[in-house]
Amino acid sequence: MHHGELNIVPHGLSKGYPEYIDFNVLPSRIIKFEKDLIEIINGNISSYYWDIASSIYKEVGYNKAKAPMMLMNRFEVFQPGYYGFNGLYTIVNTLIDLFVNSNNLTKDQTYPLDPMDFIYEEGRNNSITLEDAKEILNDSIEFGVYMHSKEIDD
Predict the structure, then answer these.
(1) How many domains, in total, are found in the chain?
(2) Which end of the chain is more exposed for a tag (fewer CB within 10 A), N or C?
(3) Angle, nearest 10°, between helix axes 130-147 and 84-95?
(4) Looking at the domain assignment, is residue 116 inside a domain?
(5) ω into residue 115 within 30 of 0, thus cis?
(6) Is the pLDDT of residue 154 over 50?
(7) Residue 86 contacts residue 149 (beta carbons within 8 Å)
(8) Residue 55 and residue 118: Cα distance in Å, rounded?
(9) What is the Cα 124 distance to its own chain's centre?
(10) pTM above 0.90?
């Protein structure tokens, strides 16, 4: 806890990572990306995360790509950043409602991934470069886990 308060929090705040996040408004922010996400699903926009995931499935095959160790290795690449696990939970559930529960995302569109795997592995932010987004994501993981990974209310 001391390390968090003395190092993680000050570092994150100095980088501008949010100390408080209103997770109730996060779904509306995600919904704003619906058109871009549909373009990715339809293959009209390139996606760094989709490219990584699909190349892994093609390289090792469907069954190996879904093996627990392979999933854990990919999880290290796809972290929640400064949103922490509360944010990841909110983002994934918003995407599930938007695409899976509404049947807007099919296995044919996400092959070789299942729609749920596609949602977990996809990400996009139009306001900054991909390299900047990856740097912020990696730099803010510890901050997000510390600040925004308390118990999730149902």
Answers:
(1) 1
(2) C
(3) 120
(4) yes
(5) no
(6) no
(7) yes
(8) 13
(9) 9
(10) no
